[in-house]
Amino acid sequence: MLKQGAHSTPHRKVDRVSLDRAAAYEILDEALICHVGFIADGSPVVIPTIHWRIGDRLYFHGSHGSRMGQTMAAGHAICVTATLLDGLVLARSAFHHSMNFRSVVLFGKAWEIDDPSDKAIAFDALMAKMTPDRCTAIRPANARELATTKLVALTIDEGSVKVRRGPPIDSAEDIAWPVWAGVVPLALTPGTPVADKA
Amino acid sequence: MLKQGAHSTPHRKVDRVSLDRAAAYEILDEALICHVGFIADGSPVVIPTIHWRIGDRLYFHGSHGSRMGQTMAAGHAICVTATLLDGLVLARSAFHHSMNFRSVVLFGKAWEIDDPSDKAIAFDALMAKMTPDRCTAIRPANARELATTKLVALTIDEGSVKVRRGPPIDSAEDIAWPVWAGVVPLALTPGTPVADKA
Predict the structure, then answer these.
(1) Domain count, chain A
(2) Residue B99: inside a domain, yes or no?
(3) Mean pLDDT within B100-106
(4) B103: confidence class by pLDDT, cuts 50, 70, 90
(5) How many CB pairs (< 8 A) connect A and B?
(6) Domain residues for B99?
(7) What DSSP string describes A104-139?
């Protein structure tokens, strides 16, 4: 289970919210990117980035010059949110339109991993996530590349999962309204690969 | 053009970053959800939500009980980030793997819109975005529903656009490495609609 903290306590629609760690892992593994929130000069900043997971650790990478990487490496509080959009929920009434989605919100403080062999293992896991069929065939990172890339990790600890599934929930008096109602599923779908001409 | 502020000044990879307002609008209109960042009790919080746009205003909705809605309505600083994932960029070297994406990051302070007719116009625009083919056929929101739903707006002013397109950029010495390289396009794709049985 995830730890429930001040920020992960659900305020409403409690039935859609859980602390289920397995559900959190499933969403984090399926999502190719997440959005990382941090505070810079007193203001919230939200940046999209790729993440990947080994056990209860979530990993992120960046260049040494990036503000997000520096903020994460410095151990400031962050919030990491991964969202999968699963469908448009089209009700009979405007009011009951919704989205089907699965999301994870995590809170914590990241830290930088410097050890070259730990970094190599973590970046191998990133390639296994991004391109499982090619990950042993690509040219592996060399020492210079590993040194150039900042690696930060967050222990998956405090947070929550929110899921909406299923059909629209119209009021009884709207069920006879003469309009199609239902769900249009949405999925991030791969298209035809485009080979590099280089 | 968008306004460049302290938080939207690109720190690196400047060639991928712009202040192009038309590009920002295109991304905001295509993205069905965004991630809103705010500060709660000193910590960053990032929540996914639907957004929509009329002119230079971005709109968000929520219940009166939601923390995000309350924070936005109170005029605290927020960051709104919308990201479209366009492809996996599969290079010959692990190091040069990347993602094609388009993202907008906006900074500002939102405010609540209370006027019922302004709210009705804004929510009509949400339906036109979510379900253009059905938006005149659904049962419109009534006065009670409009009153129940909080509407907040953000003027699109300070922020930036970041885009990565195109093939992998491998080093010259890796071009002959014997592995497929290229781009796998990704798109959020609608599936077969599922009619509600109610």
Answers:
(1) 1
(2) yes
(3) 98
(4) very high
(5) 268
(6) 14-60+67-111+154-164
(7) EEEEEE-EE---HHHHHHHHHHHHHHH-TTTTTTSB
